[in-house]
Amino acid sequence: MHLYIYGLETDFTDGQESQLRQNFAKVEFYKNADYAPLFRDPGPKVIAMDPDVTGWNLPNDIIEKIPNLKAICLQTTGYEWIDGDFCREKGIVLTNVSHYAATAVAEKCVFMALALAKRFPLYLHEGGMSYAPEFIGDEMWNKPTDIIGFGEIGHALAWRLDNLVGRKEICYYSHNPNDPDFHYWPFADMLEKSEFMFITVSKNPESLALFDDLSKFNKNMKVIIISNGFEEVTSRLVEKCEHGELGGVAFESDDSEILHRQYKSNIFVTPHNAHCTKEALARLFEIWTDTMLSVADGEIINQVN
After folding, report:
1. How far apart are CA 99 and CA 102, in angstroms?
2. How large is the average pLDDT for residues 49-75?
3. pTM, entire model
4. Which of 11, 66, 201, 293 could link 207 by a cystine bridge, Cβ 3.0 to 4.6 Å?
């Protein structure tokens, strides 16, 4: 079986690359989305994809042209950028990399919340100190704090907020109330009192629908969005904040225009770097390598379709 890695060879340790070459008949690395070699290779093959190389995209018409494709191994936790149903119909396994960055992302969430609490974006725009009322920040202790989505990242975040906010103020919303250590609360009941809301839920029609109507979000609420795929929701929250109807919004973006925009409200934008720690990236490549190897030996892990 052949392995085509759309990613940088230098990202892998010597040991990881050696393992891959021992278990696949051929291993090739590509620094751009050149799929022509896949079309020419009639043998069984696996594709491993770094979205920074492939542009977060592999259309179905490309997949269909690749002969004898056995698996697509994504370097990301999110896998919605590949049509998993289409792959399943074609007998192609789709895998992801999960459980590698929960600590890093949770810490980034706390950082973003503190930036909003202390009105950091306003000081950045002002370029200095001010005692104007809109610059006066808040303490997070004893403030109603809600987490939307209570998977691994949501759990990691809750424990890090424990001593910052106070256990009794931390609530979560999830389809499956699954943690007796923290309080489950219906989403609609959060909107009136929540002062800090973290969006850590996976993108799907149900989670997006929670934010169809923003009219009940109270004006003191500061919203921290770490989930991918919520750009339209984020845009509406930003507009609400700019009109003084929300206490603040923090989110990540790779759009240079958004990153460099001079917001005058309590809006904090950073690049998509929540996952970017030495520890998380080391775990990522370890799990990604193990996943590729699992396809080679037939005991597949991390399959998502």
Report:
1. 6
2. 96
3. 0.88
4. 201
